[in-house]
Amino acid sequence: MSSSWTVEVETKAPAAALFKALFTDWHNLGPKLIPEIITGVTLLSGDGSAGSIRQLNFTTAVPFSFVKERLEFIDHEKFELKISVVEGGDLGKKIESATTHFKVEPKGAGSIVKLTGTYKALPGVDSTEDIKKAKEGFIKSVKAVEEFLAANPGSYA
User: Fold this and answer.
1) In what residue span(s) does the Bet v I/Major latex protein domain sit (predicted)?
2) φ/ψ of residue 119, rounded to 5
3) Which neighbouring-strand residues pair with 75?
4) What is the assigned CATH class of domain 3-151?
5) Domain boundaries, the chain
6) Spatial contact of 82 and 98, defined as CB atoms under 8 Å apart
7) Whole-angstrom Cα distance, residue 76 to residue 7?
8) Any residues with CB less than 8 A from the CB of 50 and at least 6 apart, and which?
9) Quick one: which of 15, 71, 73, 151 has the fewest CB in 10 Å?
């Protein structure tokens, strides 16, 4: 049986800039903004459109060294995308499958970033602490991008 969790983060950053920085250019920006967590992001196949696969490599701050994810769909006009874990992370250790749906919605001059994670845990696995850490990591990433955009007005416009 699949389970899901959600988190929303309100930001002062415009939706379009936040979406570009946080999702379409994360391979460049992520390792610069949170080097204590991400050591690098590599596009393994595709061109960044649906079907592309990328690998995120992590420091020892994360309980696994990498995760490979496939971009299931991306809508640049609606600021929305969905990814699936295809290798690494807790796949095969704690979970059977995992997908994450992201949506950035404008709110005044800022935006709200919404994440819905859906996963199928392996029998007997309690994911409560992992979900808590995933939410904290996501919030940290969004806030790092928000700070970057505030310090660099016009970037990702």
Assistant:
1) 1-152
2) -145, 160
3) 80
4) alpha beta
5) 3-151
6) no
7) 21
8) 71, 72, 73, 74
9) 151
